[in-house]
Design brief:
This protein has 71 residues and is α+β, with helices and mostly antiparallel strands. It has four helices and three strands. It is globular and about 35 Å long.
């Protein structure tokens, strides 16, 4: 049992995906805790619940691939 494994597993459940990344070709729901770990400086400026991060120069598949590689 490790806490990190549990956090990563729970972050994949839709009920814990409370933030959205909007890319050039779609949206990606993600857990706010995980988002804050990946983008700490940006996340400090966002509200804690239902945050939206707009990344217009980013393709949705690259975001999906990135988050899949860390979870």
């Amino acid at each position: 049992w490790t806490c990190i494994d549990d956090i990563l597993k729970l972050s994949q459940e839709p009920k814990y995906q409370d933030s959205t990344i909007i890319c050039q070709d779609g949206k990606y729901k993600v857990n706010s805790f995980l988002l804050s770990v990946v983008f700490p400086e940006i996340f400090l400026q966002l509200e804690m619940e239902d945050s939206v991060l707009i990344m217009p120069d980013t393709i949705l598949d690259s975001i999906k691939t990135f988050f899949k590689s860390i979870t």
